[in-house]
Design brief:
The complex is a heterodimer. Chain A is of the alpha+beta class. Chain A has helices spanning 20-37, 56-68, 176-184, 196-203, 211-216, 224-227, 248-254, 256-262, 273-279, 302-313; strands at 3-5, 15-17, 45-50, 77-79, 92-97, 108-122, 132-136, 141-145, 151-155, 163-170, 190-194, 206-208, 222-223, 230-232, 243-247, 267-271, 289-295, 325-329, 334-339. In chain A, the strands form three sheets. In chain A, strands 14-15-11-16-17-3-19-18 form an eight-stranded mixed β-sheet, with helices on both faces. In chain A, strands 4, 5, 6, 7, 8, 9 and 10 form a seven-stranded antiparallel β-sheet that branches. In chain A, strands 2-1-12-13 form a four-stranded antiparallel β-sheet. In chain A, helix 1 crosses helix 2 and helix 9 packs parallel to helix 10 (302-313). The longest helix of chain A is centred in the first third of the chain and has 18 residues, at 20-37. Chain A is globular and about 70 Å long. The mean pLDDT of chain A is 89. Chain B is an alpha/beta fold. Chain B has 16 helices and 14 strands. Chain B has helices spanning 3-14, 28-37, 52-66, 75-92, 99-117, 122-130, 146-155, 193-201, 220-228, 249-266, 340-352, 355-388, 397-402, 412-421, 426-457, 460-467, and strands at residues 20-24, 136-140, 162-164, 181-185, 208-212, 282-289, 293-298, 303-310, 315-322, 331-335, 472-476, 482-492, 497-499, 508-509. In chain B, strands 6, 7, 10, 11, 12, 13 and 14 form a seven-stranded antiparallel β-sheet that branches. Mean pLDDT of chain B is 82; it is low at 243-249 and 263-277. Chains A and B meet through strand 3, helix 10 and strand 19 of A and helix 1 and helix 8 of B.
Amino acid sequence: MVRVASEEGAEVEFDQQAGSWFESYGRFASSLLVLQKSSEPLPKLVAIQAPSRAFVAAALNIGFSAQAIFTVAEQETRVPLESMSVLEAGSLLQVRFQWQQEDKRSVTKNRRIVTGTLTSFSPVKSGARFPSITLDIGSKLEKISLTNNLAQVFAMPPETPKGQETQEAPADGINLERWGSFFSQQRPTACTFTYLTQFEQEASLEIKDHLLVDQYLQVPSMNIKKLSRLDRLTEDEHTHFVNAFEALRSFQKLEDEIFSLIEPFQFVILDGNAAVANLVGNSLLRHKTKICIVDSGNHEMLSDSISAIGGEAMHLERPQNDSGILEIDSNSGLFAEMWF
Amino acid sequence: MNAVDATNQRNQNFGMKDGVSFHGLVSDPQSQTLLAALQIFKSDWIEADHLSELRRSISRGYQFVRLPYFFSPSGTEFLLECLGDTNRQIKLNEAFLGPEEKDLLGRYVLELEELSSQEPPWRALADEVDGLGARLLFVTEASRWANDLSSFVSASDRTKTWTSVPAVGFLTRMQPRQFDALVFLGNPLEVTDSQARLIFTAGLSPKVHCWIPWPSSLSRQALETKLFGPLKPTIGLPSFKHAQIAQSRESSIELEQVASRVATRSAEHGLELERLGTTGSEKCLLLRIGDSDVIPVEVTATRVSTLVFDSVSGRVREESTDWPFPGPGSIVFALVEQGEQDFLWDVAKVEMGDQYAEFDESRQHWLHRLKDFVGLHGAQGAERIFTDHGVTKASNLADWLINEKFTKPRANTDFRALLEALSLDEENIKKVMSLTSKFRGELNQVAKTARDLVCDALSTENWADLQAGETLDVLLEEFGDVVYRIGKVNSISEEVYQVPASQVRRVVNH
């Protein structure tokens, strides 16, 4: 069973086993992502009636993240140095430097990641030992010397945020290659619209005893935000991500820009009654799979959210038999209703 | 309880099968006679304008008999008071009533008299509910019955294990504290759809028991539609059959509707405010707002809450201002309705959680000592002894003894001196003061939240109206239907009034 623990030094410290519902939501998200890769149709609308919205979106995001790691290879392509000269200017590239350990006593290793559009390529010239590329990383132009074996270059999908950052990994006990792939993957999957305070509080909690944490990444714990590879939709903190989140208010404020921002995401999680009531019928989300989390433990906008789902469902088809209803967790009586 | 624990508990409760049960508050024979007596609501004449006071009186009785009568420990007293009022109205309006109307009213009055002569039903209900488990969470259909519900818990002597909340909406703020069951007293069809869902599907307890007035008016299908609308039900609802009165379902629904309409109309008949007296322990100046309202503020006060408009954010906010004001013109606000003390108390009790029982026990302990002390020395003797022990406001002793919600003298030094005078040892004094301070903190926080909601409710237009001299009432449904009245200070009295403590900083009709 997955454990959820408070971050170190939190005001209220706890380390608690989460019920079967937590992993069940994760499995449900993974199965949706598997469905997306198959020839089966994806639901357009999913309604989950939960006794509380707490942790539902977090668990779904972890499920999406866990499944995404297996499809990451399809999203990025390693570019060998010898092919560099044929790349067109404007190609979106990511340079991943090798992991470095500052000194032997250091408990972490670091590596630089630089993402930007290619502006120029300089082959090896006399006097220079290595070829170099210049990338436009958004705020400035960065000239990078492609030292042999010290840097790898990847062609990235267009939605990859530009910029540079330093990744950190434990110095010992982990598989660095896996760690690197997990934290560099570029697969926009689900975008959550939510109340930021509650969502961010949940995302700061540590996850233990999860397959992805102790077997794949081989660390004792990791916070939900990292594990589900979450980044802000309108303000990138990282040059890579799987899932995004944003305040419900931002959707309404941005209007014109929001469409291009959410375009890469197939799944939109509407976290709580206000998000469901306000967004489920929005035409900008028409082609997405909307996952509505109805919070039965909060009467604010509860009726509005159910009416809004009903209104949206009228435009969709519900399978005749029980295939439109998928059990999420039989212990908790949780299920998802789906319309196509 | 941390967030994960609470969510685990909710999910566990959510998945419980066969968790809902329906029970009738009324026995079959009793419901027959009550329904017969309430035929009065089917008559058109009852809605005539000139009978508004009579209608209000009957409606008040009907609303009480319909629900709180079954759990209110003071049901008999209420019925007798109501009977007196209705009989008076019947006499006043005798000239307008024909033989048929008089007959209907006679049957209604007779039924109320019958009920008032019987053993009040709350004890039987308490015994029945007792079998559901040790830790129970109670809520009733309308927040105006919250005080009766709270009294029911106290009179049943279950304050340590039963928790009552003042309004259904308040369940949103509750954490599942391993309650054995949630007990809803009322008809779930009479609350909003969202509130009904909160009762049945928020996972606050593994069982939900509803005690329903006129159970024949409840249809499983109607409730299912109310709860889930177009979505698949997450819980199974049992069918509810009330054998002998099942035939009269339509009749009871009709009565519910008519009575509800009558009650709504009657609610427009103003608030029953306590008249401002000239006796009382608090010396106050009166802030006059509107035509006939005043807010008494202690002459010794240093700060007073006012409302100000923040032009940057475009919102109204509360601001603490030096007292006395330099002059009239400030916008002030205060609670109108009586009984809000009980409401705030109930909310704070829930917020305090398990520690409330400890606070309540310690409070009862020293209050008993206080009463015994006064019994032994007499009021004047006790006051003198307390003064000698350093209690500077011992002259308020009578107010402390009368006020059921008294927690402590205003000054902590007085509180400590009083506890010392009552011979509590140092360890106990520290414990009492610490628990009281925590509870007072919860009370203040609840009141602050309510005042913030008042600010949020005001628009720019409202603010302009207030500046123009209008008074506005803000009703907070979430806070037990308390009403805050807001207005511009027209004048401040020059004369000092002696005001009962319960009326200080409240809107009083004067």
